[in-house]
Amino acid sequence: MSEFFLTQVINFGAPLIGLILFLGALGFPVGASVVVIAAGAFSQQGILDWPSAILIGLIGAVIGDTLSYGIGHYAKDWTQQRFGTSPAWINASQSFQNNAGWAIYLTRWLITAVAIPTNLIAGGSEYKFSHFLLYDLTGEFTWIVLYGGLGYWFGSEWELVYDFISNFGGLVLGIALLGFGIKQAWNWQEKKKQALET
User: Fold this and answer.
1) Per the domain annotation, does 83 fall within a domain?
2) In this model, does residue 165 exceed pLDDT 80?
3) In a domain, 193, yes or no
4) Which domain holds residue 14?
């Protein structure tokens, strides 16, 4: 898929980048990160106009994120009926509310594998849309400028950058999940300790 889209990006330019990032934000396997890195390299080679690619790509990504936030928002009643009384759900919702800004920002560019679940949780937990939009815009802009900038910097070697980022992203996700698990275990132990003391 990515090779097909990369060829089409050369032919159709920034509007196609916007469409690809829109689809990627909705969960379609279009290789959005590789397209952003390649767009930076294509800009260095004069094939694309970099400011246009950033702007149109940012618009596409944010519209996709907003739609997945909306899906979470409109599914909240069903989610509450199904999971609302579960202690794990209540704990996860409270934890998200306490760290939502960082979660939204970091899942746009650093831990992208959990970006869509984050959007759905933000919408379903009634996290304020204006706050979501602010962190989403900031995170997506960071992603496009950072990844595209690396592609621009490395030029024809941009595929090496993508390989490194793919491996690094998996490592960061694993560390984040491990950290979350340790924190949850610690909280559980503290609650158990407090229950025994009372």
Assistant:
1) yes
2) no
3) no
4) 2-161
